Amino acid sequence: MHPRRSAQEVLLCDLCETVPLQSHCELCNINLCVNCAVKHLSDSSKRHNVVPFLHRKSSPNYPKCPKHADKHCEMFCEKCDIPVCLTCVTSGKHKGHDISDVLEKLSAKTESLQKDLKELEIRIYPRYEGMVSDVKTEKAELERKYGKLTTYADEQGEILHREITAIVNRRKSAIAEMKTKHLDALNKNTEEITQKMAELKQIMSDLKSILKSNDVSLTSTYKSRNSEFRTLPPKFRVTLPSFSPQKINKDQLNEMFGSLSPLSINTERGDTMKSAEAVSSPPVKPLLDEPRVTATIDTGYKYLYSVSCLSEDQVWTCGYNNTMKLLNLQSKLLTSIQTKSGDTPHDIAVTRDGDLVYTDSSNYTINLINNKQIQTVITLQGWRPLNVCCTAGNDLLVTMVSDDYIQSKVVRYSGSTEKQSIQFDDQGRPLYSSGRYISENKNLDICVADNNARAVVVVNQSGKLRFRYTGHLSNTKQSFIPVGITTDSQSHILTADYVNHRIHILDQDGQFLRYIHCDLESPNGLCVDIRDNLFVTEWLTAKVKKIQYL
Question: How far is CA 66 from each of CA 70, 95, 117, rounded to the nearest angstrom?
């Protein structure tokens, strides 16, 4: 019986309350006469289910009202998200709240529960069962498979133990002989270069004497030999012997153990400066298990920004003042140049001709230094130049940020002419959030350390996104925030992980290879020389560390 009726009332229609009931709506849980049933079904906002009164289902189990013990909660307060009884509603505590029928809520929840149950039974739980079965099968095979591997290892070890000593000694003897030949070749090359250097010193001395004498006769008869010396002396290209292991055979162990490829010493024509260099596959240089610091340069800055190699033992540096310094490996100051504006340079790079380029974000310029003379080659408007690198084709790649620091892009320049602008991906989304250090890889990919996005962003030569590297899933002290970036002859990408005090080495496709630690403290700027030695600036100590890692 409806709770709003007393026990003495006749069972009438709950809507009109005048005509005896004949039907029942199971959704709304109300009794209806014929006319009211027709009107009730005309309400298309709900999925009413009207059945003959005698065929109605048993009354739902309404929850008891926690505040009114003799009442059941037949309604639902949408705002309070709780079932309520009629007394709760009429008491004013839920005044202005949306009230719905509790059975409507029950129906909606029931449908959701049925969907969940169906998914769990049909799709999810069977997958878990399959996974458990697969693991059981794998565990059952574990002992057999690993036992087989152990047996192979034991058998191979016994064979090697009996025969290996004599063969190793012969190989070591061959290696020592090759080493001697290699050193002889390098010494011969050094003698040739030294002889040329002696000639150069004599010519330079003669030129100084002529200039000092102011002798017209000597000056007029002087013949320049500079063109002769622009072509560097021949150098030896030595192909190091490699070891080729073979499957061991007891009866033919000496041959099957492996052989060393012959030592190859070829004389190549020396490079001619300022000429285009053909792109060739460099010799493979494996990574060292333990990289080592081979030199430490004290720059004298308060904070150290960038480093760029002029040669194997001379580097340009810039830091927290307006002076750029050329230093050798013994920390000796060779040259110093102040910026044209008197402001701190943002970044530096050495061109393929040996000139120095620096960016001045305070006055929006990119400047070239040749023979200590500063020339402003590019002046920007609306964009601040940040970091710069020189490409294989002697172009400049520059990262820059808009005046409002919202947009970032990479621009390629040939001289002062803009050749390319890289800012968005194929879907029109920004590639960079704040492009910082930049480097061109040997495969001509453009690599940017985007410290704001905490990612290394790599695009190909045409500016199409290749990949993003967001750090290695190893034990990290703090978030990965890349700053400096450089590349080497093996197309490795090296980036400075400033907060974790280490360098990440990636392959050209963005796969992590290993870390370089070397007791680095807040590494920042990076560069490599022609021998693939890594130079790392330490922000706080203002030191440059030269590291051998290949």
Answer: 9, 19, 30
**Beta-strand pair 75-77/82-84:** antiparallel
Domain 292-548 has CATH 2.120.10.30: yes
What count of other Cβ atoms lies within 10 Å of the Cβ of residue 15? 18
Q: Is 140 left (phi over 0), alpha (psi -120 to 50) or beta?
A: alpha
Show the 3-state SS of 124-163: HHHHHHHHHHHHHHHHHHHHHHHHHHHHHHHHHHHHHHHH
d(CA 85, CA 66) in angstroms, rounded, equals 9
Integer Cα distance of 396 and 377 in angstroms: 11
Residues 223-245: tens digit of each pLDDT: 888 888 888 877 777 777 777 76
DSSP notation for 414-449:
ETTEEEEEE-B-TTS-BS-SS---EEE-TT--EEEE
The DSSP 8-state label assigned to residue 5 in this structure reads: S
- B/e letters for 170-185, b = 16+ CB within 10 Å, e = fewer, are eeeeeeeebeeebeeb
Position 465, amino acid: L
| Residue 298 confidence class, pLDDT cut points 50, 70, 90 | very high
322-353 pLDDT, tens digit per residue, is 999 999 999 999 999 999 999 999 999 999 88
The pTM score is 0.51
Give CA–CA dist 80/68, Å, rounded: 17
Which amino acid type is present at position 205?
S
Domain ranges of the chain: 107-268, 292-548
